[in-house]
Structure formats: C-alpha cells, structure tokens
Amino acid sequence: MKGGAQFALFVTSYLPLFILVIFRQIYENQNIIMQADFNTVELLLVLKKFGLSALLVLISIFGLLGCVLIFKNLEKDATNGDNVTILNVSNKNSESIGYIATYIIPFLFQNFSDWYELFAFVFIMCIIYRIYINSNLILINPVLSFKYSIFEIEYRKQNGQVKNGLIISRNKYLEEDSKIKIYEIGFKLFYCKKNM
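Below the sequence we write its predicted structure tokens.
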C-alpha cells in the first residue's frame, strides 16, 4: 500500500476519536458561535476554538472516501491473488479493543482549548502515524471491524510452501482446510477475496 492508502486507513482507525473531539469542541464552545460578530478578533477566536474540528472534518472525509476506494480496488485486484489452503487460523478482531483503550481513550480527556494542547495532539498523532504505517497496526482498525474481520493464518501455497501472515476478510469465520484467495497488500499483510 502506498502513502495515500496508509493515511486513509490511519484516519479511519481514529475516526471515533475525531468525532468525539469535534462534538466536544462544538459543545464546549457553542456560545462563541452564537455571540460572534465575525470581526477579525472573533474570527481568530473561532479559528482557535474550532480550527482543529474543521481540520478533523476534512481529514475524516478524505479518510472515509479513501477507504471506500481502497477496498473497491482491493476487491478488483484480489482476483490476481494466490490460492492457498489455511492450515491454522486465529481471529484477531479483539485487537481493536486494545487499540481503542491504548490509543483513543487517553485523548478524550484533552480540552484542546489552547495552542499547546493542539500542538501536542498533532505531534502525538504524527508519531502514532509513523508507527502505524511501519507495523501491522494498519489492519487493526475498529471502524473496519464493522464490515471486515482480521485473522492471523498459517497457510500452504499451491507449490507446497508453508507461510504465515495477517489477512483482512469479509468472512466473519474462517476454518482450517478452507481454500481462500489472498492478495498481498504489505509485508505479511493480505486481503482475502473470498472462500474458494
């Protein structure tokens, strides 16, 4: 996966946090909009209080549209994948719960009312993004869990080689000895087209 696709998946993994931050900023600062005359000073105040929310809305729209395009393209490209037989399978959907607890909940208690907190939020998100795209966290995504499942599998290729990796699949259940088609999207990361 290239940079735009990785960024879209990262954004969707943080979509619950972004929605909560947006609603919190609107709720805490709604009186500013109600009383604003929109002169230069008040526009700067509105930008300070709602700039992060506006940015998060734009990023979220990009992430959602990007995710739709990614999976539409993966579904089409996966027809060129490898046919394999599952030898061992482990469901990894529970990883999303740990992801929420570790990466999302701590941000809920931030106020985002001054420039330091905004800078700290953006700085931490940049660090998490770099970790995210350089690890297998790219498939650990609570939003994708609504439609897709994540499995760790050991599989046998048609030439007899035994390998392992993580797959994302529309199938909610996979069993040993199932025959599937997998399409590589990263190092030991695959998209599962369907049961064969």
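The chain is about 50% helix and 20% strand.
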